[in-house]
Amino acid sequence: MMSKKKRVVIALGGNALGNTLPEQMAAVKITAKAIVDLIEDGCEVVVSHGNGPQVGMINNAMIALTHEDLEQPNTPLSVCVAMSQAYIGYDLQNALREELLNRNITDIPVATMITQVRVDENDPAFQNPSKPIGKFVDAEQAKMMEEKFNYIMKEDAGRGYRRVVASPKPAEIIEIGTIRTMVEAGNLVIAGGGGGIPVTRQGNHLKGASAVIDKDFASCLIAKELDADYLIILTAVEKVALNFGKPDEKWLSDVSVEEAEQYVKEGHFAPGSMLPKVQAAMDFASSKPGRTALITLLEKSRDAVQGKTGTMFHA
User: Fold this and answer.
1) pLDDT under 70 in the chain at which residues?
2) Entry's SUPFAM superfamilies (predicted)?
3) The model scores a pTM over 0.85
């Protein structure tokens, strides 16, 4: 047992949640085991997660509704993110509660915090929306969606058209005070789902934005605000690699922020997949002495915290 509890923020990747309702129900059981392992090892855990397949499914369902009922206004993306947070949180908190009780841990309540994340309306990402969302449509449907919903549609590599939205940087976790209070009261908190519900501030009003926030950057901000010891970013590989998939592939175990910066400059990490994870890990590890970021597989998270595997980032 560690003497003082290590505070850990875990960012779950899509593979920890599955792609469909039945897949998610099965996936969260395995995910819950890995998280409760860390709790048994004396960690205080906060869970954040992606929502790629789930928010896409909700978005598509809401668009289908507008085709069925022409009176039905379109559902903003920010509302779809809120729905995905609640739906994923519901499955996760039930699986975590069950796993805790299966191990006779009865004093850790589990709760999901619907989390808004403020973005800057002048963030340059709004000038260049590039994050695809929803399904592929043909040119005619794309034109209709642009006119009816004010969507920005882009042709995607000959596969048809898809809606694209901005991916601005998270600037503030609106509910951070509540999240902190819950963590300090001994709760296992699920927060910042899907990168958070993107909002911009207009006086005292928070207005939903047509955007998706990278969940790794949002998790990094939550971890910094909670003064966590570890940020664990879970993905589909055990370690980060240089020259990934090539004959001279090299797996990284221990990386300083300085070295990682050099690797980023050399273009080793794919934008949209490993790059944001590495950038979030570097940001957290360099934010204060004693903070460590890890990138690894869900099943290896316990070993990674013990220094046995994963890629560890330090200042």
Assistant:
1) 1-3, 15
2) Carbamate kinase-like (SSF53633)
3) yes
